[in-house]
Amino acid sequence: MNGKRILLADDNDTSRELIREVLECSGYDVSEAADGREALRKVGENPPDLLLLDIQMPHMDGYGVLSAIRADPRVADLRVVALTAFAMHGDRERALGAGFDGYVTKPVDIGALRVEVQRFL
Fold first, then answer.
1. What is the DSSP code (8-state) at residue 112?
2. Shortest CA distance to 9 belongs to which of 46, 44, 61, 49?
3. pLDDT tens for residues 54-104?
4. Contact (CB, 8 A) for 19 and 25
5. What is the pLDDT of residue 53?
6. In degrees rounded to 5, what are phi and psi of residue 60?
7. Distances (CA, A) of 92 to 13, 32, 55, 73, 104
8. Is the link from the previous residue into 48 a cis peptide, with omega within 30 of 0?
9. Count of alpha carbons within 13 angstroms of residue 75, beta-carbon side
10. Cα end-to-end span (Å), the chain
11. Alpha helices of 9-98 — where are they, by DSSP H?
């Protein structure tokens, strides 16, 4: 294990399972959240080294979670990568402009995911 902790927040069970397996095989310690509120709670309780955050989730979307994180001085500088099916022209720019550090589209390209995770860890 490389000791780096990643929180994976995505409401799709299949997506979480696939991404978790890929990251764990790369040596990361992965925890999961199934919605925005759970992700925010877990970040507050035990901040990860990186948050992979789906934009479209129940209870609180990724933009709301990101906004709350950036407003909390304890975790404001947490690296957060958008994980999203929004892949239309301008979506990446919107996410980065909102304060996401990186952007990965779904369905996830495993190679691109690994590159993006390594970039921040």
1. H
2. 61
3. 999 999 999 999 999 999 999 999 999 999 886 777 888 999 999 999 999
4. no
5. 97
6. -160, 125
7. 24, 23, 11, 25, 9
8. no
9. 21
10. 13
11. 13-25, 36-45, 62-71, 91-98
DSSP 77: T
Rounded Cα gap, residues 81 and 105, in angstroms = 10
Place of tokens 């709670």: 41
- 45 residue type, one letter: E
H/E stretch holding 7 reads: strand 5-9
C-beta of residue 59 within 8 angstroms of C-beta of residue 35: yes
Residue 111 identity (one-letter amino acid): G
DSSP character at residue 86: -
**How many residues are listed for the chain in this entry?**
121
Question: Which two structure tokens, joined as six digits, stand for 103?
Answer: 């952007």
Residues paired with residue 53 on neighbouring β-strands, in sequence order: 9, 82
Alpha carbon distance 62, 87 (integer Å): 15
pLDDT at 32 over 90: yes
Whole-angstrom Cα distance, residue 118 to residue 34? 23
Rounded CA-CA distance 120/100 in Å is: 12
